[in-house]
């Protein structure tokens, strides 16, 4: 019985490491400071599912100033985005919030369809310029 539990424990630890490896191995590239947060994208996550489509994983975290003012809110978000570089549009495929310790907090609902990048969304435009070269 002990050996079965030991093997099960090893398999469980392996699964946890495997599922978290992408975030741990991320190569976060700073995009800029926007309002109350800092924005990054994972250079290793960039993929091109089709000719004009770029898919990336982005991370936003509260700015240092915002953290000082709202200590209890320290968290970050991991967002899976697709950009249509030709049409200058984007969409969120996944949007999850985590505590500063990496514990899952919330899964946000993503709107269907493509959204247009407009000047008000300068943080999205910063990502667009970084990955749609």
Q: In short, what is this structure?
A:
The protein has 133 residues and is α+β, with helices and mostly antiparallel strands.
Secondary structure blueprint with pairings:
Layout: H1 2-24, E1 28-34, E2 37-42, E3 47-50, E4 53-62, H2 64-69, E5 75-84, E6 89-99, E7 104-107, E8 115-116, H3 122-131
Antiparallel strand pairs: 1-2, 2-4, 3-4, 4-5, 5-6, 6-7, 6-8
CATH class wording = Mainly Beta
The biggest sheet amounts to: 8 strands, antiparallel
Summed up, the domain count is: 1
Contiguous low-pLDDT stretches (5 residues minimum) are 1-23
Radius of gyration: 18 Å
Tell me the number of helical segments per DSSP (H or I, 4 or more residues long).
3
> Beta fraction of the residues?
35-45%
Structural class: alpha+beta
Tell the overall outline: globular
Please provide the count of β strands: 8
Order of helices and strands: HEEEEHEEEEH
Percent helix: 25-40%
Assembly context of the chains: single chain
Q: What's the CATH topology label? A: Lipocalin
End-to-end gap: 57 Å
Q: Identify the CATH architecture.
A: Beta Barrel
What is the mean predicted local confidence, pLDDT? 78
